[in-house]
Write a structure and sequence with these properties.
mainly beta; single chain; 11-stranded mixed sheet; Pectate Lyase C-like; 10-stranded mixed sheet
């Protein structure tokens, strides 16, 4: 007959084995998850309206407006990443230096709303919120989200990735968005007139209820142009291999 102590030990063996296995897994996992990072942080104080340029290689760029007149740029980077900065008057250029080892740099940026913004990236999503200044974005592989904008000009070019725009259109403004491979999802106010040119090669164009008030110069399935509510700012949408979706707000 099994003794009480042996029986008790056998009852606890499965639980003890699980604890040992979990401890071993945790030890093996530590080197993989404990990759060191470095921190970049700088505050800029432009005298007038700033022009901020961010040139990244691999990583996200998040920009949001705040009510201060300073610019705060923060980034978490891999140790091998080198960030350079140049400030000439109100022109500020922050760039990730390219090297054979492509390290990651994730930017978090706060700017005055009227800052002129230029963003360049090879790989990594881009997010801009509540900005009122001109915006230029050029990326190879990024999903771009532009939310709450009130900018006079927007120019976005993406080789691979989706573009989402939700904002206002200014009188005499220019809004150009191009994705070689990706969708364009655009939301603009129903009451704002504009001139539209939408084209795609292998995708589809869906203008929703805008189509009923569009005085069209072209109604081809892959190429639609015309004036909405007598026309106004220029809205140019191009998706070579993707959909174009236009929504009212």
């Amino acid at each position: 007959m099994m003794s009480l102590s042996n029986k008790s030990l056998n009852q606890h063996l499965p639980g003890m084995a699980i604890l040992v296995m979990l401890s071993c897994l945790a030890l093996f996992a530590l080197p993989a998850t404990a990759e060191p990072t470095t921190r970049f942080e700088h505050i800029y104080t432009p005298r007038g309206t700033a022009h901020l340029t961010i040139a990244n290689v691999n990583g996200t760029i998040h920009v949001s407006a705040w009510d201060k007149r300073t610019i705060l740029v923060r980034a978490n980077t891999a140790p091998a990443v080198e960030i350079t900065e140049r400030e000439v008057g109100d022109d500020i250029l922050i760039a990730v230096k390219r090297s054979f080892r492509v390290g990651r740099a994730d930017f978090e940026i706060n700017i005055p709303a009227d800052t002129y913004l230029t963003l360049k990236n090879l790989m990594g999503d881009i997010d801009v919120q509540n900005v009122t200044g001109p915006i230029s974005i050029d990326s190879i592989d990024s999903n771009v989200r532009l939310i709450g904008l009130n900018s006079p000009t927007v120019d976005v070019k993406v080789t691979s990735g989706d573009i989402l725009f939700d904002g206002n259109l200014h009188d005499n403004g220019s809004y150009s968005m191009l994705a070689v491979k990706g969708d364009l999802d655009i939301t603009v106010p129903e009451s704002t007139p504009f001139n539209l040119h939408a084209r795609t090669l292998s995708g589809t164009i869906n203008l929703g209820s805008f189509i009923s008030n569009l005085v069209s110069g072209s109604r081809e399935p892959k190429n639609i142009s015309g004036s909405y509510l007598k026309g106004g700012p220029q809205l140019s949408l191009t998706a070579y291999a993707g959909r174009i979706l236009l929504h009212k707000k």
